Amino acid sequence: MFYSSGEEKEKAVKDSLEMLRTLEEHALGKKKFFCGDKISLVDIACGWIAQWLEVLEEVAGVKLIEPQKFPRLHKWIENFKDEPIIKENLPGHDEMLVYFKPLAGKAPSR
Fold first, then answer.
1. DSSP letter assigned to residue 107
2. What positions does the domain GST C-terminal occupy (predicted)?
């Protein structure tokens, strides 16, 4: 999605939405975090969604996680980013944007 366009980008968006829908419907439930009230390894593994995905959405010009489509995932992102240990260690949005924007025009090497 990040480097693609046209049909390739549409497929990447569709696949990404399917993965996010699976997390929304089957993994989160009504819990604050994936395994309950405390951050677990699963939250850490999915933590890139909380900060990186937002920046990648901006760079790619797509919006994947909308609160009305993914209310549980959206709430999980808020909860995750609000945890002191996470808040203290996440890179800044603007800092990440500066890094990723120049990469948007470059195709990955194969």
1. P
2. 1-100
